[in-house]
Every structure is written in structure tokens, then in C-alpha cells.
Amino acid sequence: MAGFDLTMRSVPVRWTWDEASGTYLREEYGEPHLDTTGAQINVQNVVVQFIPYGTSTVDARSPQGYTVGEGDAMVFSGGLMQYVHWSRPSAESPAVFTQADGSTVQLTPGRTWVELAEAGVSRLTPL
User: Fold this and answer.
1) Per-residue confidence band for 10, with pLDDT thresholds at 50, 70 and 90
2) DSSP state, 62?
3) Under a CB-based contact definition with an 8 Å cutoff, are residues 50 and 71 in contact?
4) pTM of this prediction?
5) What stretches of the chain adopt beta strand conformation (E)?
6) pLDDT digits (tens, 9 = 90+) for 87-105
């Protein structure tokens, strides 16, 4: 898969698979998303974790994501995409991503970016 577009609230994000480097390249608002050195953000894996959101208890203008529970996710790794399930029983536990047969998802060694997309609201479109 060449990558995907993801719209989270009003933020358009694009991840493009770059086969030459074996990484996904991130854009926001149609421009390369750069790190502090000026290099484009690039990772070996992108996980899109669909979570519920509510209103922040600290600032009513801000959303607050809830990552304890379970739900759907998509994993992009090695130029391929797979639908998976995520679960996290408590805030003290890491999220676990499993395939339909119950086995744990294997990621490509390297950096992983997790997009916390709003379940039922965020839109993901394959490229």
C-alpha cells in the first residue's frame, strides 16, 4: 500500500510509503512534517488506533483521548496494511495489538508512530 490520508478533526495527515528507505513519510496540511533538525518525519511503522474522545477536564476547548479499553486499529508496516484489535486494561499497561487469530502483531524493527484517531469520526483513505 502506497500510504494513506487521515483526517483527524480538522487536521489532514498523509503517510506515504517510501520503498527506497523502507519508511513512511509524514505530511500535515499538505506539507512535509519536519523534525527539529529539518528532516521529514519518517518511521518504519504507523499504527492508527481508533479511540473515543471527550472534552478535557483541564481545558473545555481541548479534546481528551481515552486509551484504556479496546477497539479497532490499523497497522502499516513494510508497505503493507493490516486490520487489528487493540486492548489496554489499565493506564499502567501498554496497549497490545492483536490479529484476528489472537496473535500479537509483529512490527518492523525501528520507530513506530501511533496516531490516536477518533473512533467513528476520523476518516482514513488509502492512497
Assistant:
1) confident
2) S
3) yes
4) 0.94
5) 3-8, 11-18, 23-28, 31-32, 42-43, 45-51, 53-55, 63-65, 69-77, 80-88, 96-98, 112-118, 123-126
6) 999 999 999 999 999 999 9
In the numeric block, the cell 488509502 is attached to 126
**Residue 7 to residue 123: CA distance in whole angstroms:** 5
d(CA 67, CA 91): 8
Q: Which of 13, 6, 37 lies closest to 126, judged by CA?
A: 6
| Tens-digit pLDDT profile for residues 61-81 | 999 999 999 999 999 999 999
Which residue reads 499502567 in cell numbers?
92
If you search the block for the grid coordinates 479496546, which residue do you land on? 70
Residues 18-35 as b/e (b if ≥16 CB within 10 A, e otherwise) read eeeeebbbbbeeeeebee
Place of cell 527506497: 20
Average pLDDT over residues 25-36: 98
What whole-number distance in Å separates Cα of residue 106 and Cα of residue 68?
A: 21
> How far does Cα 116 stand from its chain's mean position?
6
pLDDT band at 1 (very low <50, low <70, confident <90, very high): confident
- Residue owning grid cell 479497532: 72
